[in-house]
Amino acid sequence: MLKDVSRTEAYQKAILGNKEQFEGKIVMDIGAGTGILSLFCAQAGAAKVYAVEASGLANVTREVVAKNGFSHVIEVVHGKAEEIDLPEGAKVDVIVSEWMGFYLLHESMLESVLLARDKHLKPDGVMLPSKATLYAAACRLGQFYTEQVDFWKDLYGLDLSPVGQAVLDSKRCKPEVAVVKADELLSAPVQIADFDLAWLGPDEIERVHSRAFTSVVCDEPTEYQGVCLWFDCAFEWPDRMASSPVKLSTSPSSAATHWKQTIIVLPSSIQVEEGDLIGWELTLNRSPEHRRRYQIELNLLDPEEDEHPVPCSCGQARCVVISAFMAKADQEPLPDDGVDVFSTGPQ
């Protein structure tokens, strides 16, 4: 985490930029690791910080805390956050954790964080980050194809392209973590999932499903070669006027992070041009054997033949009309027909 400036600075700004939200508060840092987030919380004025670390690194964390003179504030707890008990059943005001994995969910600690929230957080407590959103967009994979596939077409004067094809076939079996440039995106971002960490239930992360259609955005005809996944995290408080919100983004348009982006490589390249409609159905199923991993299924959809979700922002005429009608209906008050509706319980 420490070498990833973007993500470390996001947490630093969220904590030290909102000291009034930490002064005198009890905080739990889940997956404390080196203790950097616990130290930020102590610097912000927290009265007590429980730095929870399940690995053997907990002993090093204690040394780091002592080295920085915060042993009187930070208590390192060796164990899983959802299993430990705090002294006298204490509850915390804030839970902070860097739990996110690749494409938000892969190898993440999200379930542990949610279970710890239900056990340790006060009813009016705050989760940091407070929200997490997963996005997808169509993309071309210029650098990926150059390095992994096209490289084999002319090597020492020989055509080894079958090797490149074998490499491509192997990449289709699992998502690829790589850097995708902003100019390689071929569509606007499509929201796949939006998690509010204050209310999200553990059962809600068992399966994430999205069915979407979108329009291709490009300057000239090009190749649609994959679907790019990334996430944003927001650090917000219920009373937003009294705090400074911070966003950590892993999008291709933002500074590179440890998470990079995740790409799902298509079986073959598809020729597209500006305004073409494309669609996909994306499902992330939590693995029953490896609970911190997900099985990803991507099916390409035909914009003309397959049913569109309602509402749909693809830009197709029928979807524009339906979306406009629904928006208007949401704004209009319910008609007053003069009939009072009431119910009664058992007498």
Automatic annotation (TrEMBL):
Key words of the record: Methyltransferase, S-adenosyl-L-methionine, Transferase
UniProt entry tagged with the keyword S-adenosyl-L-methionine: yes
Catalysed reactions listed for this entry: L-arginyl-[protein] + S-adenosyl-L-methionine = N(omega)-methyl-L-arginyl-[protein] + S-adenosyl-L-homocysteine + H(+)
Domain annotation Protein arginine N-methyltransferase: ranges: 131-299
GO cellular component, one term: nucleus
All residue ranges annotated as the Methyltransferase domain in the record: 27-125
UniProt GO MF annotations: histone methyltransferase activity; protein-arginine omega-N asymmetric methyltransferase activity; protein-arginine omega-N monomethyltransferase activity
EC annotation from Swiss-Prot or TrEMBL: 2.1.1.319
EC supergroup of this enzyme: transferase
GO terms (BP aspect): chromatin remodeling; methylation; regulation of DNA-templated transcription
Pfam families with a match to the protein in the record: Methyltransf_25, PRMT_C
PANTHER family in the record: ARGININE METHYLTRANSFERASE 8, PROTEIN ARGININE N-METHYLTRANSFERASE
Name used for this protein in its record: type I protein arginine methyltransferase
